[in-house]
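A favour, since you know our structure tokens better than I do. Go ahead and set the record down below.
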Amino acid sequence: MLNDVLFYALAVLSLASAVMVFIFDSMARATFSLLTSLLCVAGVVILLGLNYLGIVIVLMMTIEMAIMAVFMIMYMMNPAGLMPMTMVHNSKGSAVVCGVLFVLLVIGIFLAPWPAPEGRPPEDVTMDLGLSLMGPQMLTMMTLGMALFATIVSSVVLATRRGRYDRLGDELDAERADDPVRGGVGR
């Protein structure tokens, strides 16, 4: 009973927050609304018994949305992506395409020749799922993860012109930071 209530609550919240992505008029709010939707989907996946896949979704989507928010704050012309802007382009055309695609997918679900289940499920479903997802590519994925992390750190370092030593002196003992916006020690 509790699983049913959680399933439907997460499903409704996921759908509502996915719709809010297109209603919000700022990139930052749309990003966190999308994160909410994806975390609810991860919760549904966990409720279905695929704990490993659910946790992978949580980790991937949280990090991805955080990176997207950080890059929006650093590089967007409007402050932190909070200025009003439209999230939908060619709304009539995209609505038609989405409607047609939805109908085709539903028809495909009912007309597809689904295979009959054979055999029994493996003893450790999580292990088999992990091997199916990553398999021999685990080293590649770990290397890509470290490369992505190094890229993020490098871009943050390159985006800031001054560090804490420039602002508070070599010993970090200045009474006030030398910030050009507020007028500091050197002004």
